[in-house]
């Protein structure tokens, strides 16, 4: 008690001195009356203002943060400064005799400095007092732990699954070798084993995390795809799509997910059946107080020191990105994509705000003694998309991720139960110039040219666009001059060709492209596409930037098409031939996707150079994932040695789910499935096994 009072007094004194210093430096910040005051009187005024600001920050700030929980997270990071400044203006207004005054702009700056200094002072005092630090941890644990727990959970290990989004197996090994991640390196030398695994064809977070958390990623052909039966475009990182994907997975498995038993989901696309949520995308589809996913913001930003510290780091990250992108531009580094617009702020949110909130939530889960926690840190993935998966920009992110891992591991030592920490990734990233950067046109441009549809003039001037347009024109002229007899499907298709070409929907998921023709209610076959667009498949298959196509066939079931007229029936497909550059398992991955109900009419995978490891993304990314080719298909699983060793050939996110579920069973007994009947309809929220919010996606 005595030491706590002493810390409060020291923080108050330092805050008072800081306020006096700022009053002397800033002309628009006043702590004296208009007639002037003695130094003693000014010091008393500063002490009064510092004390009032401290009390307001402790008592009023949590209420303010709760009131603005529905504000978008990126906006909240900026509002922190202005809200804090408002508290300072109120504190100055409370000074007797009107001795305190400041312009609003000055108040924002003074409040930021005051909060940072108070936080730094308090932290420094706590670090020097080990007993106080331990007492605080245990107090948090006692407050958060359920009072109904009577079975001594301290004796049963919990498991923390920490996902490093987009960090491939080779990237992790290189980072450990180069000393970028000393914490992970220490684990590899002593307590953990490293296991690579192979993704499905759709090597992206939506497919991988749905499979890992819910045990099924069936019918997720890409990051975004068009569904003919519903007429909508599904996008994995849209809340409404995430809700539907999770509902479908639960309906297929009859199970709420990996985290149904005393679990927490932090920073993920899907809930995994957890009752405790923070920054879960699928939960974001719900509004109002029921959206407990935003409670993670309140838990973190209710401390004004946290808010200011994160806001300052966010601004610093914005300027860091501006500096790094300018440096890349001046050095003419290639490949390169545009990094202007809102991207610096998007990057800052992913690398600062999301990281801080998720790490704080995970530490709270550990201190609360939760059985299973799954958290996603997206920082590396976001930066690698625009800076590339290898280089100084991503090296800095890996260093900061390692520090976050070390902090979490340190807190785990003070948890009320032992914890096994499992690191894993959902996919890797492959590098290379974009398809447009290499050939001057997008995949959509190439498809439209191959269909004989209008394209921008710049596309017609490119070699690819010119060849595709000429081939489409020649094929269309040939079709128009052929006689049309009879009343069968071929005759009707020929008549449609004569009327007008159809408008395709072209979507990109990294280096995986999807082409759909929405006016046809079923999956089109090779033969039907040839009748409607005689030059399209040939144009795509022979393009040097495209590795292979997958289309249905009336004769062969489905076929893989590649350059020089190669056509391999899906039943005869092996990892040789057109799929040889894509490595082992490519044929099985393609075959599995071919059976999905919502597979596109034409699935397009870019080329892959197995020697350079490069691919061509069909969107603006020089570090990409979503298809086959290179490091994107090789994520990792880093697990403690006291857990059973995973299979050497670990293929697909669904198999990873089975491994993780087996580890949970070993630690805490069998999980309790959720009856399928409890799964809500699309777009609705359901209940978890514990009674609330199982379906957050």
Automatic annotation (TrEMBL):
Region Disordered: list its residue ranges. 667-697
Instruction: Tell me which SUPFAM superfamilies the record gives.
Output: Alkaline phosphatase-like (SSF53649)
Per its UniProt entry, which superkingdom is the organism in?
Answer: Bacteria
Q: Which parts of the chain span the membrane according to its record?
A: 43-61, 68-95
Question: Which stretches are tagged as biased composition: Low complexity?
Answer: 669-697
Q: Which UniProt keywords apply?
A: Membrane, Transmembrane, Transmembrane helix
Q: InterPro entries of this UniProt entry?
A: Alkaline_phosphatase_core_sf, Phage_holin_4_2, Phosphodiest/P_Trfase
A Pfam family assignment? Phage_holin_4_2
Q: What is this protein called?
A: Phage holin family protein
**Which organism is this entry from?**
Streptomyces solicathayae
């Amino acid at each position: 008690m005595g030491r706590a009072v002493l810390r409060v007094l020291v923080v108050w004194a330092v805050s008072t001195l800081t306020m006096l210093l700022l009053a002397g430096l800033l002309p628009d910040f006043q702590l004296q009356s208009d007639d002037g005051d003695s130094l003693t009187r000014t010091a008393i005024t500063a002490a009064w203002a510092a004390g009032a600001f401290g009390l307001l920050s402790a008592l009023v700030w949590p209420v303010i943060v709760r009131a603005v929980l529905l504000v978008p997270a990126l906006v909240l990071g900026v509002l922190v400064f202005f809200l804090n400044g408002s508290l300072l203006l109120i504190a100055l207004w409370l000074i007797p005799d009107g001795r305190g005054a400041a312009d609003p702009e000055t108040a924002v700056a003074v409040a930021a400095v005051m909060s940072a200094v108070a936080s730094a002072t308090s932290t420094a005092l706590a670090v020097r007092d080990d007993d106080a630090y331990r007492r605080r941890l245990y107090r948090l644990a006692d407050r958060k732990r359920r009072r109904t727990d009577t079975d001594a959970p301290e004796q049963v290990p919990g498991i923390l699954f920490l996902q490093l989004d987009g960090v491939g197996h080779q990237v992790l090994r290189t980072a450990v070798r180069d000393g970028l991640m000393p914490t992970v390196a220490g684990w590899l030398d002593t307590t953990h084993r490293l296991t690579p695994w192979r993704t499905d064809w759709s090597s992206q977070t939506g497919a991988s995390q749905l499979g890992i958390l819910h045990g099924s990623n069936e019918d997720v052909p890409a990051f975004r795809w068009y569904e003919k039966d519903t007429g909508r475009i599904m996008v994995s990182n849209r809340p409404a799509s995430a809700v539907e994907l999770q509902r479908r997975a639960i309906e297929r498995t009859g199970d709420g997910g990996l985290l149904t038993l005393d679990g927490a989901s932090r920073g993920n696309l899907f809930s995994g059946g957890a009752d405790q949520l923070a920054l879960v995308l699928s939960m974001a589809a719900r509004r109002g107080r029921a959206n407990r996913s935003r409670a993670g913001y309140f838990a973190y930003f209710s401390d004004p020191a946290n808010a200011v510290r994160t806001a300052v780091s966010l601004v610093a990250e914005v300027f860091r990105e501006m500096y790094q992108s300018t440096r890349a531009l001046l050095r003419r580094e290639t490949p390169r994509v545009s990094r202007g617009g809102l991207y610096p702020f998007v990057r800052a949110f992913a690398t600062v705000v999301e990281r801080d909130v998720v790490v704080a939530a995970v530490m709270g889960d550990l201190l609360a003694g939760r059985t299973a926690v799954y958290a996603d840190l997206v920082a590396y993935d976001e930066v690698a998309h625009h800076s590339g998966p290898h280089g100084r920009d991503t090296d800095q992110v890996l260093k900061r991720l390692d520090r976050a891992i070390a902090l979490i591991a340190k807190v785990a030592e003070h948890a009320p139960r032992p914890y096994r920490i499992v690191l894993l990734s959902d996919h890797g990233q492959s590098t290379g110039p974009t398809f447009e950067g290499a050939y001057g046109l997008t995949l959509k441009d190439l498809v439209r040219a191959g269909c004989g549809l209008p394209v921008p003039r710049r596309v017609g001037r490119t070699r690819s666009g010119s060849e595709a347009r000429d081939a489409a024109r020649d094929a269309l002229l040939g079709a128009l001059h052929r006689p049309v007899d009879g009343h069968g499907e071929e005759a009707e298709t020929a008549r449609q060709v004569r009327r007008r070409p159809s408008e395709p929907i072209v979507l990109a998921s990294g280096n995986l492209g999807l082409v759909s023709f929405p006016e046809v209610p079923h999956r089109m076959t090779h033969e039907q596409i040839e009748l409607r667009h005689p030059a399209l498949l040939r144009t795509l298959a022979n393009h040097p930037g495209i590795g292979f196509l997958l289309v249905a066939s009336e004769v062969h079931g489905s076929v893989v098409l590649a350059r020089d007229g190669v056509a391999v029936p899906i039943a005869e497909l092996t990892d040789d031939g057109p799929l040889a550059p894509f490595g082992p398992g490519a044929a099985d991955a393609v075959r599995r996707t071919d059976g999905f109900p919502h597979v596109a009419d034409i699935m397009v995978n870019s080329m892959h150079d197995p020697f350079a490891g490069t691919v061509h993304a069909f969107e603006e990314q020089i570090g990409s994932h979503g298809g086959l080719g290179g490091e994107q298909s090789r994520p990792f699983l880093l697990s403690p040695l006291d857990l059973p060793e995973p299979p050497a050939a670990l293929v697909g996110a669904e198999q990873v789910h089975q491994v993780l579920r087996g580890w949970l069973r070993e630690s805490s007994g069998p999980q309790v499935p959720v009856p399928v009947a409890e799964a809500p309809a699309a777009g609705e929220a359901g209940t978890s096994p514990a009674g609330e919010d199982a379906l957050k996606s």
